[in-house]
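User: Please check token order:
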Amino acid sequence: MQGKIYNVLVLCTGNSARSILGEVLFNALGKGRFKAWSAGSKPAGRVNPGALEWLQGQGYGIEGLRSKSWDEFAVPGAPEFDFIFTVCDNAAGETCPVWPGKPATAHWGIPDPAHVEGEEARREAFRKAAEQLALRIRLFMSLPIEKMDRLTLKEKLTEIGQIQD
């Protein structure tokens, strides 16, 4: 299990901002140990420009990013996920598809930066959302996942989701 690559799905209703940030951060911070995707229950159809601006400003690649439905990942041949994280309260309360393999799940709610008014305030909201996600992702990646039983892992994922700063 030491060399296992973990598949992660980051969910939000619109899949335009927070879940996109989560996808990119998981892939970048995971350094090959994690492969992440993002999706939404009601995809917006485009990635929020504020998310793209923040990602580019931090030197992350944005090629291939798109707003997509979680239905794409609930069909035969789709990746089998080890972990699924919801990052918005709406998606956490929705009935999700049945995911094969019984992935570990957690809600890591992040305030929505997409609806913040004013250019500077919006930029700051995207920065805060991304930093919050990055902190949680780093804490998650520091866990000895391979050595943890399912219940302990679930408890740790929940604890991480409650960390604010």
About this structure: The longest strand covers residues 6-11. The chain has five helices and four strands. The chain has a mean pLDDT of 91. The first helix runs from residue 18 to 29.
